[in-house]
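explain this.
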Amino acid sequence: MAYERSPYTMQYDVRGLLADINVQGQLRVIRTILAEQQLDSILVSLGIHSFTFPEVGLSRGLDDRSIWSFCQEHRFALLTENRNHDGPDSLHAASTEMLLPTTVPVATIAKKSTFDASAVYARRVAFDLAELLFSLRFEQRYWGIPRVYLPFPVRS
């Protein structure tokens, strides 16, 4: 699929999801889970697509600040694993220093090893990710939050 920049000018607009280089395999699993439930076609009909680095022309070794800035400019939620790197170009530094009310959040798989080992956990992550993307399109609930952990905490 060819990547094109969004023509939208709305402040609260999400074009999709960009999978960080370290969750490419998990994105394939998520795509499969969402396709099984036809959620992928609903997201696509809303103009919300999922992309990998090669699909948008990003290099594998790009620093986190540049990745985060790219996602904000092109209105992508970044999907990544739970990692904390300190430093001026870390994802944490970029997402907190440059936070605005219209910031698209980083979607973080809380436990990547559990995702890889448990189909139930992977399904929860996939469904909660779809809910996050739907919410970003139709609500303002997650805008301006630096990071959203997946799956969502279990509700009682």
User: Anything to note?
Assistant: Confidence is low (pLDDT under 50) at residues 1-9.
